[in-house]
Amino acid sequence: MKQVINQAEVNLRRIHALGVKKIAIPLLHPLGCLPVVSKGSSFADCKKLVNLAVIIHNNLLQTVVAKLNKETEHSTFMVIDYYNAFLTVLKNKGETPGITRFETPLKECCGGVCGVVDEKGVKNYTLCDDPTSTFFWDGLHPIQEGWKSVYAVLGKNLTATLIKA
Protein backbone atom coordinates (compact mmCIF):
# COMPACT_ATOMS: atom_id res chain seq x y z
CA MET A 1 0.00 0.00 0.00
CA LYS A 2 2.82 2.40 0.88
CA GLN A 3 4.39 1.82 -2.57
CA VAL A 4 1.15 2.89 -4.25
CA ILE A 5 0.99 6.06 -2.15
CA ASN A 6 4.68 6.84 -2.80
CA GLN A 7 4.16 6.42 -6.54
CA ALA A 8 1.04 8.60 -6.39
CA GLU A 9 3.13 11.35 -4.76
CA VAL A 10 5.76 11.08 -7.50
CA ASN A 11 3.06 11.22 -10.19
CA LEU A 12 1.31 14.20 -8.59
CA ARG A 13 4.62 16.08 -8.41
CA ARG A 14 5.21 15.35 -12.12
CA ILE A 15 1.74 16.57 -13.08
CA HIS A 16 2.21 19.73 -11.03
CA ALA A 17 5.63 20.33 -12.63
CA LEU A 18 3.91 20.29 -16.03
CA GLY A 19 2.03 23.41 -14.94
CA VAL A 20 -1.35 21.94 -14.06
CA LYS A 21 -3.04 24.43 -11.72
CA LYS A 22 -5.67 22.23 -10.03
CA ILE A 23 -5.38 18.49 -9.48
CA ALA A 24 -8.26 16.43 -8.08
CA ILE A 25 -7.35 13.12 -6.44
CA PRO A 26 -10.18 10.68 -5.82
CA LEU A 27 -10.18 8.72 -2.58
CA LEU A 28 -11.17 5.10 -2.87
CA HIS A 29 -14.83 4.36 -2.25
CA PRO A 30 -15.76 1.72 0.35
CA LEU A 31 -14.65 -1.40 -1.55
CA GLY A 32 -16.06 -3.59 1.22
CA CYS A 33 -19.53 -2.49 0.09
CA LEU A 34 -19.16 -3.72 -3.49
CA PRO A 35 -21.67 -6.48 -4.28
CA VAL A 36 -18.83 -8.81 -5.26
CA VAL A 37 -17.58 -8.44 -1.65
CA SER A 38 -20.86 -8.03 0.28
CA LYS A 39 -22.31 -11.12 -1.40
CA GLY A 40 -20.90 -13.17 1.51
CA SER A 41 -23.30 -11.42 3.91
CA SER A 42 -26.24 -11.84 1.51
CA PHE A 43 -25.77 -8.16 0.62
CA ALA A 44 -26.70 -7.12 4.18
CA ASP A 45 -23.41 -5.57 5.33
CA CYS A 46 -20.20 -4.10 4.03
CA LYS A 47 -17.02 -6.07 4.75
CA LYS A 48 -15.40 -4.06 7.56
CA LEU A 49 -11.88 -5.41 7.12
CA VAL A 50 -11.80 -4.43 3.46
CA ASN A 51 -13.10 -0.95 4.31
CA LEU A 52 -10.47 -0.62 7.04
CA ALA A 53 -7.75 -1.15 4.41
CA VAL A 54 -9.43 1.50 2.25
CA ILE A 55 -9.51 3.94 5.18
CA ILE A 56 -5.77 3.41 5.78
CA HIS A 57 -5.05 3.97 2.07
CA ASN A 58 -7.21 7.11 1.97
CA ASN A 59 -5.60 8.53 5.12
CA LEU A 60 -2.13 8.02 3.67
CA LEU A 61 -3.19 9.67 0.43
CA GLN A 62 -4.70 12.64 2.28
CA THR A 63 -1.44 13.06 4.20
CA VAL A 64 0.46 13.24 0.90
CA VAL A 65 -2.03 15.76 -0.49
CA ALA A 66 -1.68 17.97 2.63
CA LYS A 67 2.12 17.77 2.34
CA LEU A 68 2.03 18.73 -1.34
CA ASN A 69 -0.31 21.64 -0.67
CA LYS A 70 2.10 22.99 1.97
CA GLU A 71 4.86 22.94 -0.64
CA THR A 72 2.87 24.89 -3.25
CA GLU A 73 1.73 28.51 -3.17
CA HIS A 74 -1.94 27.65 -3.58
CA SER A 75 -4.01 24.61 -2.67
CA THR A 76 -3.27 22.94 -5.97
CA PHE A 77 -4.25 19.45 -4.85
CA MET A 78 -7.68 18.44 -3.63
CA VAL A 79 -9.27 15.15 -2.73
CA ILE A 80 -12.67 13.93 -3.83
CA ASP A 81 -14.06 12.00 -0.90
CA TYR A 82 -15.82 9.13 -2.63
CA TYR A 83 -15.54 7.04 0.53
CA ASN A 84 -17.88 9.13 2.66
CA ALA A 85 -20.13 10.08 -0.26
CA PHE A 86 -20.73 6.42 -1.13
CA LEU A 87 -21.32 5.51 2.54
CA THR A 88 -23.80 8.36 2.92
CA VAL A 89 -25.82 7.17 -0.05
CA LEU A 90 -25.59 3.47 0.88
CA LYS A 91 -26.48 3.98 4.57
CA ASN A 92 -29.42 6.24 3.72
CA LYS A 93 -30.40 4.02 0.79
CA GLY A 94 -30.27 7.23 -1.21
CA GLU A 95 -33.08 8.66 0.90
CA THR A 96 -32.24 12.32 0.56
CA PRO A 97 -34.37 14.91 -1.23
CA GLY A 98 -33.73 14.70 -4.95
CA ILE A 99 -31.91 11.37 -4.69
CA THR A 100 -33.19 8.00 -5.82
CA ARG A 101 -34.16 5.56 -3.06
CA PHE A 102 -32.36 2.25 -3.41
CA GLU A 103 -34.25 -0.62 -1.78
CA THR A 104 -31.29 -3.01 -1.93
CA PRO A 105 -28.23 -0.77 -2.24
CA LEU A 106 -25.55 -3.47 -1.75
CA LYS A 107 -27.05 -5.93 -4.23
CA GLU A 108 -26.26 -5.70 -7.92
CA CYS A 109 -28.97 -5.61 -10.57
CA CYS A 110 -27.07 -7.84 -12.98
CA GLY A 111 -25.87 -11.02 -11.29
CA GLY A 112 -23.49 -13.46 -12.94
CA VAL A 113 -21.45 -12.53 -16.00
CA CYS A 114 -23.49 -9.62 -17.36
CA GLY A 115 -24.27 -9.74 -21.04
CA VAL A 116 -22.60 -13.12 -21.60
CA VAL A 117 -24.38 -16.10 -23.10
CA ASP A 118 -23.05 -19.62 -23.52
CA GLU A 119 -22.60 -21.45 -26.82
CA LYS A 120 -26.31 -22.40 -26.80
CA GLY A 121 -27.41 -18.81 -26.27
CA VAL A 122 -28.34 -19.32 -22.62
CA LYS A 123 -27.74 -16.26 -20.45
CA ASN A 124 -24.98 -16.53 -17.83
CA TYR A 125 -26.61 -13.75 -15.82
CA THR A 126 -29.85 -12.61 -14.24
CA LEU A 127 -31.32 -9.14 -14.15
CA CYS A 128 -33.31 -7.61 -11.34
CA ASP A 129 -36.90 -6.57 -12.00
CA ASP A 130 -36.30 -2.94 -11.05
CA PRO A 131 -32.83 -1.53 -11.80
CA THR A 132 -33.69 1.66 -9.91
CA SER A 133 -33.95 -0.35 -6.67
CA THR A 134 -30.21 -1.04 -6.66
CA PHE A 135 -27.22 1.26 -6.37
CA PHE A 136 -24.94 -1.11 -8.31
CA TRP A 137 -25.40 -2.37 -11.85
CA ASP A 138 -23.03 -5.32 -11.45
CA GLY A 139 -20.58 -6.53 -8.81
CA LEU A 140 -18.40 -3.42 -9.20
CA HIS A 141 -20.13 -0.51 -10.93
CA PRO A 142 -22.84 1.87 -9.70
CA ILE A 143 -25.79 2.53 -11.99
CA GLN A 144 -26.21 6.03 -13.39
CA GLU A 145 -28.65 6.94 -10.60
CA GLY A 146 -26.07 5.68 -8.11
CA TRP A 147 -23.48 8.09 -9.47
CA LYS A 148 -26.03 10.91 -9.49
CA SER A 149 -26.70 10.22 -5.81
CA VAL A 150 -22.97 10.26 -5.00
CA TYR A 151 -22.57 13.53 -6.87
CA ALA A 152 -25.58 14.99 -5.01
CA VAL A 153 -23.68 14.32 -1.77
CA LEU A 154 -20.40 15.73 -3.14
CA GLY A 155 -22.05 18.46 -5.23
CA LYS A 156 -21.67 21.95 -3.82
CA ASN A 157 -18.39 21.33 -1.99
CA LEU A 158 -16.84 19.71 -5.04
CA THR A 159 -17.93 22.50 -7.39
CA ALA A 160 -16.78 25.22 -4.98
CA THR A 161 -13.38 23.59 -4.51
CA LEU A 162 -12.81 23.09 -8.23
CA ILE A 163 -13.58 26.71 -9.13
CA LYS A 164 -11.62 28.24 -6.27
CA ALA A 165 -8.62 30.16 -7.57
UniProtKB/TrEMBL annotation:
InterPro entries hit by this protein: GDSL (IPR001087), SGNH_hydro_sf (IPR036514)
Highest rank taxon of the organism: Eukaryota
Keywords: Hydrolase, Lipid degradation, Lipid metabolism
Pfam families named in the record: Lipase_GDSL
UniProt similarity note: Belongs to the 'GDSL' lipolytic enzyme family.
Name of the molecule in the record: GDSL esterase/lipase At5g03610-like
Source organism of this protein record: Camelina sativa
